[in-house]
Design a protein that fits this description.
There is one protein chain. With 410 residues, the chain is of the alpha/beta class. The chain has nine helices and 16 strands. Strands 1, 2, 3, 4, 5, 6, 7, 8, 9, 10 and 11 form an eleven-stranded mixed beta sheet that branches. Strands 12-13-14 form a three-stranded antiparallel beta sheet, with no helix packed on it. A two-stranded antiparallel ribbon has the order 15-16. The chain is globular.
């Protein structure tokens, strides 16, 4: 296994100006795992007592669990745009969610995290859901990823949509080509996990960025045969337990190749649970509302980060953070060239890695629904301005029923 001091030297060389090293250090590998519509209350380490998530619980024990980690918008495309650009989705015109009829995508002038890491010498790959444009100029392989397998948009954008019939077949891509139509969705988690493990093995000798944006547990939900009827939480629990096993396999692959102290693993959800789907949806735990709202149940997500020897173990951080902060933090960490265009996130390495620092300057995080500003958080306070929002209408089920409510701002 590579010596831990080499990893520390890599971080120190970029985070502490003036500190030199005698040899070219290895930059840390980065594995970014994103679940789709996973709720704040769906994991054992966040208080769930029904669904078993031992691998994610162990990852939290080996690293840091963040209690106040946010996405910029409570919907797929906007959330992912912020994650990969370091910008509020509105800055890059990606509010809302794209579908098979969308002709737009992330502007090629925006420099995405995979492009910045690729230019710094990283091998890059994405296995899972993209959702940032399905026209050729916007596909992942045109935006910094060396390999892509998965969906261009959400898995309900096809014939299996729970409430909208007559949608076109769901395409499955490999690289820039559609290689399958209406794939078996019960195989998604397994397929993406296998590809991730293969990518780790193939690039164990060099720094890599593995982006694993799982399709599940976005509706329609499916678990592989080996995980069906295993959970006390029904099919949704089965799906989450399979995702947990996938994380365990990725961690095992890292260890198998002696890369544990060379690899930063980040696990988050893209937004809160899709509550209108009842038994096929997750839980926001103690938080209010879910996906499509800017109440904390929609924008506050589980976030776990682990990097043995470089990130504190068994730590809980209550400092507010947002996905927009990951790009500048990681770019600074590895010494990559930052984007030329303005971004909204900032380097939060001191908070994430638990380093001594000057008192953190209070900052505002802004929350939009589409183009409307709905809320802002500063420190321990969150203000909701008066706005309309969607709330679940009807008893728990498998359909999708909402009603519109008005918020007074409380």
């Amino acid at each position: 296994m590579r010596a831990a001091w080499m990893v520390w030297a890599a971080g120190a060389a970029v985070l502490s100006p003036g500190v030199g090293v005698a040899a070219e250090p290895r930059h840390p590998n980065i594995i970014l795992i994103v679940a789709d519509d996973l709720g704040y209350g769906d994991l054992g380490c966040y208080g769930n007592r029904t669904t078993r998530t031992p691998n994610l619980d162990q990852l939290a024990a080996a690293g840091t669990r963040f209690t106040d980690f946010y996405v910029s918008q409570p919907v797929c495309t906007a959330s992912r745009a912020s994650l990969l650009t370091g910008c509020y989705a509105n800055r890059v015109s990606m509010a809302g969610a794209l579908n098979h009829q969308s002709r737009v995508g992330l502007d090629p002038n925006e420099r995405l995290l995979p492009e910045l890491l690729r230019d710094a010498g990283y091998a890059t790959a994405i296995y899972g859901k993209w959702h940032l444009g399905d026209r050729p100029p916007f596909l992942p392989t045109r935006r910094g990823f060396g390999d892509f397998a998965g969906l261009p948009y959400s898995n309900d954008n096809g014939p299996l949509h729970p409430t909208m019939p007559d949608l076109p077949p769901l395409p499955f891509y490999r690289g820039d080509r559609v290689v399958e139509r209406d794939p078996d969705q019960s195989r998604f988690t397994r397929r993406f996990t296998d590809l991730a493990v293969e990518f780790i093995a193939a690039n164990a000798h060099r720094p890599f960025f593995l982006y694993l944006p799982h399709v599940m547990p976005h509706v329609p939900i499916f678990a592989a045969p080996a995980f069906r009827n295993r959970s006390a939480a029904g099919v949704y629990g089965d799906v989450v337990e399979e995702l947990d096993a996938s994380v365990g396999e990725a961690v095992a692959a890292v260890r198998r190749h002696g890369l544990e102290r060379d690899t930063l693993i980040v696990f988050i959800s893209d937004n809160g649970p899709f509550l209108s789907y009842g038994r096929h949806a997750g839980s926001a735990g103690p938080l209010r509302e879910g996906k499509l709202t800017t109440w904390d149940g929609g924008v506050r997500v589980p976030a776990i980060m682990a990097w043995p020897g470089s990130l504190p173990a068994n730590r809980v951080s209550r400092d507010p953070l947002m996905t927009i902060d990951l790009l500048p933090t990681l770019v600074r960490l590895v010494g990559a060239k930052p984007p030329a265009l303005p971004i909204d996130g900032r380097d939060e390495g001191a908070v994430i890695f638990g380093r001594p620092a000057a008192p953190r300057q209070e900052r505002a995080y802004w929350f939009y629904a589409g183009d409307e500003l709905h809320a802002v958080r500063v420190g321990k306070w969150k203000l909701h301005v008066p706005h309309e929002y969607l709330t679940v209408d009807g008893p728990p089920g498998e359909g999708g029923r909402y009603r519109l409510e008005a918020s007074s701002g409380t």
